[in-house]
């Protein structure tokens, strides 16, 4: 009888442990270093509204987050670039479902120089020339007679890929470009180097100078402000994305719906990125069954 009671106690304890584990609600988010601060802030606010929920947010680069999504080690991949068709195909083959692509914010990809640099604007052609090595001295773009020092993101970064595709037009980065692990590291390097130039998400631009960017030689230089980015006037802007395997469910679905809400989009602006326009938010919120009241962000077309 005593043995039976002992066994019963072990079973009850095991069931209780299982129940406790079941009650522990966890969401994992991994990927873009550009987005990691935004993801962490979203997580903090959402957890404060949902006691008992744990959301873990880590960076490592968009490519790292996408690989984790494909391998099943994260619920959400944060990416500052769109997933490639080959990556989506691999995800479907390995996980058995189509990937859901959810734009969650907008970023003006800024080009940075040191505050002491007299240059205030560059054309896209100038930026391409600088990063491909065709332009090596600041005097060639109206600056001082000094060698240009290039700072870049690492090649698993979505920002690196976007910049290569949309600014360098798929040309190779010049070999002297120093690759750094995260946009914050690029900012830190440029802030300490009067000859330096770097690029990255707009929210990381504190303490250095954002250049005005000209679409071509005859166009005006445009600041990467929210108004200019959302009006498509700034020539280097992009969506920031969440990716999930299939339609998210449970707490992950609730979190995605909240990110698309007025409250979630308000966090975007507080962090320093740009909320989706009302038109985009209504369209994209529908992907996760979320309602988008018409008060967050700017109206878009």
Task: Give an account of the 3D structure.
39% of the residues lie in helices and 20% in strands. With 301 residues, it is of the alpha/beta class. It folds into two domains: 24-106 and 238-288, 3-Layer(aba) Sandwich (D-Maltodextrin-Binding Protein, domain 2); 110-223, Periplasmic binding protein-like II (D-Maltodextrin-Binding Protein, domain 2, 3-Layer(aba) Sandwich). A five-stranded mixed beta sheet has the order 2-1-3-12-4, with helices on both faces. Strand 7 (149-153), helix 6 and strand 8 (178-180) form a beta-alpha-beta unit. Helix 2 crosses helix 10 (262-271). The radius of gyration is 23 Å and the shape is globular. Residues 5-24 and 292-301 have low confidence and may be disordered.
């Amino acid at each position: 009888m005593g043995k039976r009671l002992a066994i019963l106690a072990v079973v009850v304890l095991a069931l209780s442990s299982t129940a406790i584990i079941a009650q522990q609600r966890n969401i994992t988010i991994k990927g873009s270093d550009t987005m990691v601060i935004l993801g962490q802030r979203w997580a903090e606010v959402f957890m404060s509204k949902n006691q008992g929920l744990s959301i873990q947010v880590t960076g490592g680069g968009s490519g790292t987050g996408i690989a984790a999504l494909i391998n099943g080690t994260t619920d959400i991949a944060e990416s500052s670039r769109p997933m490639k068709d080959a990556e989506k195909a691999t995800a479907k083959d390995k996980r058995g479902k189509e990937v859901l692509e959810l734009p969650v914010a907008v970023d003006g990809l800024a080009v940075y120089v040191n505050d002491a640099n007299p240059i205030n604007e560059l054309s896209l052609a100038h930026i391409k020339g600088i990063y491909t090595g065709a332009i090596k001295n600041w005097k060639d773009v109206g600056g001082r007679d000094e060698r240009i020092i290039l700072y870049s993101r690492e090649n698993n970064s979505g920002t690196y890929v976007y910049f290569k595709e949309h600014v360098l037009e798929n040309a190779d980065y010049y070999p002297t470009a120093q690759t750094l692990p995260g946009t914050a590291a690029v900012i830190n390097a440029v802030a300490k180097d009067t000859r330096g130039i770097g690029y990255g998400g707009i929210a990381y631009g504190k303490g250095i100078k954002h250049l005005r960017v000209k679409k071509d030689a005859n166009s005006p230089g445009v600041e990467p402000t929210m108004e200019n980015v959302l009006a498509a006037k700034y020539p280097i802007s992009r969506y920031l994305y969440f990716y999930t395997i299939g339609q998210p469910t449970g707490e992950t679905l609730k979190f995605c719906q909240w990110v698309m809400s007025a409250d979630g989009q308000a966090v975007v602006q507080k962090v320093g990125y740009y909320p989706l326009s009302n038109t985009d938010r209504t369209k994209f919120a529908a992907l996760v069954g979320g309602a988008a009241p018409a008060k967050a962000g700017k109206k878009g077309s």
